Amino acid sequence: MTFNWKDYIADAVFNDLPWQIKVDEFVRKEITTLDDSYTINNEIAIHSSSIVEEGVVLKSPVIIGPGCFIGAHAYLRSGVHLMGNNSVGPGCELKSCILFPGTNLAHFNFVGDSILGSGVNMEAGSIIANHFNERTDKQISVVIENKSLKTGATKFGSVVGDGCKIGANAVLSPGTILERNTVVARQELVNQNAMKGIQWRDLFVNKGFDLVMVILGITIAFQLENWKVSSDQRSLATFYKESLLVDINSDISELNHIMKELESDRHKVEAYLPRMDQLPADSLAAPLLAILSFETFRGNQNTYQTLIASTGLNTLDDRLVVDKLTEYYTLYTSIRRLESVYTQVILEMNRHFSNHVVYDQRRVLTPQVVSMPATRNYLMLALGQLTSGVNDYAETLEKAQALKAALEKSL
User: Fold this and answer.
1) Lower CB count within 10 Å: N or C terminus of the chain?
2) Is position 217 within any domain?
3) Between 200-272 and 302-309, two packed helices, what is the crossing angle to 10 degrees?
4) Can you tell me whether residue 130 is helix, strand or coil?
């Protein structure tokens, strides 16, 4: 029985077995090889092209590679290496993990003691567990070549092969090994060691009658309980759907408002750029104020967060609603990323223009600033961000309206 890294992750170069890798030591060693494109402080290395939102907690050692996005209130600890172009959404927790390039976590995910290949996607609320808290014997086993192997470890999550897709609220049990391009359904529990080693023939030969009686008793008990709670579950599902509808209506109103503002701001910049050399210098103030007046999206996700934090999604009996729910709230990450990048653009522009323009008087103190190459470059950069913003908000609004329609139909 052998474990070949290349069968799961094409770019893996590890010599040890997955459960033998000391991720914190690996990350510390990698930090010593980084160039000056990283800011390194107390064994936390962040690439200059990456975005780390407010409220993120990083506990060394951590490497955040190029082109990464870390959403608000994410928590990375005990050795984490994001190799590049990774997205870790709001509220995620990563412990002793390596993420190969292009792997993304939506939001409210937990990944412990695991190695994820390239192009892996984890939808909202999916979890990779790393410890059998409920067992007396906490040693973790893995299944390789259809054979169970004891690892000797009590903390080990998963190896997730390149291109795997893990659905919302799915759970990978400790010791899960996923082959490349595996798809895990939403709310699915993956436990590759479940019932290993049990001889079903012996059970039926020696304990057949007892087994049938136990199964029959359990079936009857569950049916009685289902009759008892089915009415309550329907009421709870209705409550959640009505609450979600209130949230989504508020979001649609806010999204429409901000998108109109972005379109108006984009029009002002587009109208100014071709004529900036012919217009009076003070005309620069109008597009600048439009750019600087950017509004952020508050969002209304209290009900959704409640569903994710509890077992509330299980009460929703409409699969279309659950799918549309996940599709919509996943786009919150795109909006937050846009806002973060646009804010950086605004700060850079303000540093360039603040000594030359009196914003509240709409007056340009230094007319020469209009002809500076940096002025045109900044305006072009802002125009690009405004265009991206309009597109992102339009997509989010479309998903919001689809979710609203699904909720109204389900109610």
Assistant:
1) N
2) no
3) 160
4) coil
CA distance 121 to 216: 40
Per the CB < 8 A criterion, the answer to whether 84 and 65 are in contact is: yes
User: Which residue from 243, 254, 238, 239 is spatially nearest to 303, judged by alpha carbons?
Assistant: 243
Report d(CA 272, CA 162) in Å as an integer: 47
Structural domain count, the chain: 2
Q: Does any domain span residue 208?
A: no
397: part of which helix (H) or strand (E)?
helix 373-410
Question: What phi and psi values does residue 287 have, to the nearest 5 degrees?
Answer: -65, -35
Residue 201 in domain:
no
How do residues 372-391 score in pLDDT, each as one tens digit?
Answer: 999 999 999 999 999 999 99
- Residue identified by tokens 């699915």 is 188
Q: What is the pTM of this model?
A: 0.51
Whether 263 and 151 share a structural domain:
no
CB contact at 8 A, 73 and 56: yes
Closest CA to 240 of 323, 313, 167: 313
Q: Which domain covers residue 176, as residue numbers?
A: 5-190
